[in-house]
Structure formats: C-alpha cells, structure tokens
Amino acid sequence: MSDTHDGNLIFRALIILFLIAFGFYLGNEVGLLGRIFTGDRSYISYVILAIYLGATLHWLWLAQSLSRERRSMAALESELNENESGGLPERDRVGRLFASLRKNADHNPAVLLETFGDELANRHALGHFLSDVLLKLGLVGTVIGFILMLLPVGQMASFDPKLMQQLLASMSTGMSVALYTTLAGLITSTLLKAQYYLLDASLAEFMNRLIVLVDLHRDSDAT
Known about the structure:
The chain is an all-alpha fold. It has helices at residues 3-6, 8-29, 32-39, 44-81, 93-103, 110-122, 125-154, 164-222.
C-alpha cells in the first residue's frame, strides 16, 4: 500500500473538519448559533462548545499521529518486500516494535502486538469520554432549564392576570435554556463520536495490517 494512501487519513480529517466548520458557519448565518448563545442564560452552551473545540484539536492531533504511523507501516512493508530487512529503521514506533519482535523471535508476538494496539487505542479514550460529557452537559442544561421554567410558578402566591405576561416570559427563558443546551449537547456529542469513529476504524485497519505483516515475516524467517 502506498505512502500516499496511508497519508490520506489526515486529509480526510481535514475535509471533515472543513465540513463541520462550514456547518457551523451556516448555523451562524441563519442565526441558530446566535439564538443558542443568547437564549442560554445558564452559559452551559459556551462550556459545551469550548469542550468540543478542545476535543476536536485533540482529535486532529491524533489523526496526524496515526497518519504518521500508517506511513511508517507503508515504508516498512516496502522495505520488507524489497528484502531489505537487515537495516530497518528504529526511529519510529513501528520500526522499534518490529525490531523488538525480531530480537525476540522465539516468543509469541501476540502479547507485544496487543500491548501496542491497546496503547494506541487508549489515546482515543479521552475523545469518547468527552463525547459522553457533552451529552451529559446537554441533559444538565435540560434539567436546569425546566427548573428555571417552573420556579416562577412556584413563587406565585395568587393568580393575577397582570402577572401572566411576566410569568410566561420567565417560563420561555427556562424553556430556551432546556432546548438550546440539549441541542448543543446532542450536535457536538454526535459530531465528536463520528470523528473518533474515523480514528477507530483507521486504527483497526492499521493493526490488522501490522499483525499480517508480522505473521508473514515470521513465516519467511522460519523458512
């Protein structure tokens, strides 16, 4: 597999990032973002957006890192196919892993490969955790919004038609908080899950290729 193909992960990530940014731009143009931020008196939407932006930067860094690992894998495959295994580079993690497997050829490589795969997969755990946090923050905003909506009703000592307009305005403020924070949490959580799904799928394909490469190399060494 070529280096160009293995470098496509970061380009796919950038394309997804551009589409997300364009979606936010359209939301701002139609006034949706403005209504969310002005209607959310709890400011939870600001927290949700800040967490999402930080998680997206982390996701982009992971995409770049995994893309680099995939390019190292492609270079290693090319060197092995050209029977140049005597001088494999150890400057990257894949090269060091393969060199360690060669030094311990008598041992089962499954444990080392599993450890390596878990180490890479654990870097995605923060993104999945933050995705759940965003959804939970949206639900917290829902609860706070309903509390704000029902609080004026509980404070009414008597029914006064003159106070109904003020009561309805207070209830609409609470409803806005509930709806807008829920919307912000759902959108950002879904987007972040989709972003990290791209990394999970790419990592799974990367580890499958690595396992096959190790098995083929060990078979060729044995013969």
